Amino acid sequence: MAQDSLLSRFRGWLQTPAGKWVGIVAGLALLALAVCIFVYGPSGTDTEIERLRAGGRQVWVFCRNCEHGEQIRVGVDEAFPVICPRCGQKQAVQGYRCRSCKRIFELPAARRFACPYCNTPHGAG
Length: 125
What we know:
about 120 residues, 3 helices, 2 domains, alpha+beta, about 40% helix
């Protein structure tokens, strides 16, 4: 019974002008909080971005020094050339693996290109 009387007194207080204003302000504050969470996202997304950034990305590389090609993981912000996994020289540039012969070669600057080994056309079609 004590809860019913407390609840009924609270309802009665909300009907007063002061109770209405407090209810409106509290409702607007909750709405503003919901909008901020929706716009800026939940906290902790920066750590997720940093985790993905630290993991890097898988790319094909072709070494200009020893002509070795391999798929390696490089940092997201890392610029080419990178260190070759075979010879250790900083001569590995971004490579491309041919769909037909499976050999790796240096990725040309042109959007359309052919494999230098089997002449299979690649690129934007």
